[in-house]
Design brief:
Helix content is 50%, strand content 22%. With 247 residues, it is of the alpha+beta class. The chain has 3 domains: 49 residues, no CATH class; 44 residues; 137 residues, 2-Layer Sandwich (Phosphorylase Kinase, domain 1). The protein is globular and about 80 Å long.
């Protein structure tokens, strides 16, 4: 089994829907291929994130009781005109609640899914040194050529030592259903992973968010998508983003 066949069957394998023969072939390939294994881990983490109860809308306690009580009081009113005038906005508000609840239950924003994968990969990389760096080097002229032949694009690799962000190496990863480059910088004792891959969008200014206690900033520039993630404070992570954008 090659990587293309393996990746096309990862979701089916994760759902336990492959037959015994295919499952054994998949397991054998995953034991030998770190890229496909990382892709499976990303899918598993994504699946777990989508099951998070925080994505589900829960009405406030007593909402149904309050609505029923209000409707009952109004039904006893002797002023039909007033009742109709009150009921229309009440029904409109109820409809808005239903629409909003449906939105919360069904929404799966692409950026949210990517940010989950980015944070999961960042956390995995910090677990052991073998997950963090494939090519250890402080020299961009060593790191950049290392990606040649491993990716279908050439990531920009910047030396930001003078700005206080030391390059310590690079690695391959798998994000948003494609292989990506990861540049690893260090600020004091804080590790910063910068994920890079070709962008399908025009230039976008940096957008910051916090996820699972980590700061993330993503932007696009010159045909490339960038995601920077770290436990470094947001102000300094924004400084790194600006340095990468301006060079």
């Amino acid at each position: 089994m090659n990587c293309q066949e393996s990746k096309s069957q990862l979701q089916t394998y994760l759902d336990g829907e492959l037959d015994l023969t295919k499952s054994l072939e998949q397991e054998a390939h995953l034991g030998e291929c770190s890229a496909c294994s990382q892709a499976l881990n990303s899918l598993r983490l994504l699946q777990q994130s989508l099951r998070n109860e925080s994505l589900r809308f829960q009405p406030t306690a007593g909402l149904e009781k309050r609505v029923r009580s209000a409707l009952r009081r109004e039904s006893d009113s002797r002023t039909p005109t007033f009742r109709a005038r009150w009921l229309i906005p009440a029904l409109t508000a109820a409809a808005l609640v239903i629409v909003f609840a449906s939105y919360l239950l069904t929404r799966t924003p692409a950026d949210d899914l990517v940010s989950s994968e980015v944070v999961s990969s960042h956390v995995r990389s910090l677990m052991t040194s073998s997950h963090l760096i494939d090519v250890p080097s402080e020299d961009p002229h060593t790191v950049k050529p290392w990606f040649d032949g491993k990716l279908d694009f050439s990531p920009p690799v910047k030396d930001l030592t003078a700005q206080g962000f030391g390059l310590i190496g690079g690695r391959l990863d798998y994000i948003a259903n494609r292989p990506v480059a990861v540049l690893i910088y260090q600020r004091r004792k804080h590790t910063i992973n910068v994920f890079v891959w070709p962008a399908a969008k025009s230039d976008i200014k940096p957008v910051a968010q916090v996820r699972q206690g980590y700061n993330l900033i993503h932007w696009t520039k010159s045909g490339m998508m960038f995601w920077a993630v770290s436990d470094l404070n947001l102000a300094e992570l924004q400084q790194l983003a600006e340095e990468l954008r301006n060079q």
